Amino acid sequence: MSLRPTVDFLLHDWLKVESLQSRERFADHSRETFDAVLDTCERIAREKYAPFNRLVDTQEPHFDGENVILPQATHDAYKAYAESGMLSAAQDYEFGGMQLPYTVEAAANAFFCHGLGQHRLGHAHQRQRQFAHGARHRFAKAGICSERIFGALFGHHVPV
User: Fold this and answer.
1) What is the residue extent of each domain of the chain?
2) 18 contact partners, CB below 8 Å, separation of at least 6
3) Domain range 4-154, CATH class
4) Which of 33, 44, 71, 134 could form a disulfide with 29 if both were Cys (CB 3.0 to 4.6 A apart)?
5) Residue 47 per-residue DSSP state
6) What is the pLDDT along the chain (160 residues), one digit of tens a residue?
């Protein structure tokens, strides 16, 4: 069963999320932008997370003495999520965010938990996302750009 009809009903029919567009902070958005975010998250969850549920159960993380080794599918899923912009979706434009209403961000993130239950990949994803969210604000206040933060988190070097 698809989660999308329920998410659409809750956001658009019950919560009337489009009414937030009247606020200056969300004036750049529309139902189309909200739906594009939902479409993207639903696709990433379907293509990058769901197919590997069994794999990450059978190939659990292990420590080789220096590093924690995860299945490549885990890295690919995190990368797709990060590249989608969802790590900072509700944050200000000036910090690299999309200035989405938190309601839309939370609804979009539901696709990553749907069907996963207490799944390890879902929990690791949430912990990483929470860390990144807090780090973004702390580093931004210190004048460090978000590209450097996420480069460090995801193993990409970004020159100063």
Assistant:
1) 4-154
2) 12, 30, 31, 34
3) mainly alpha
4) 33
5) I
6) 688 999 999 999 999 999 999 999 999 999 999 999 999 999 999 999 888 888 878 888 888 888 888 888 888 988 999 999 999 999 999 999 999 999 999 999 998 876 544 344 444 445 445 444 554 454 454 444 444 444 444 444 444 4
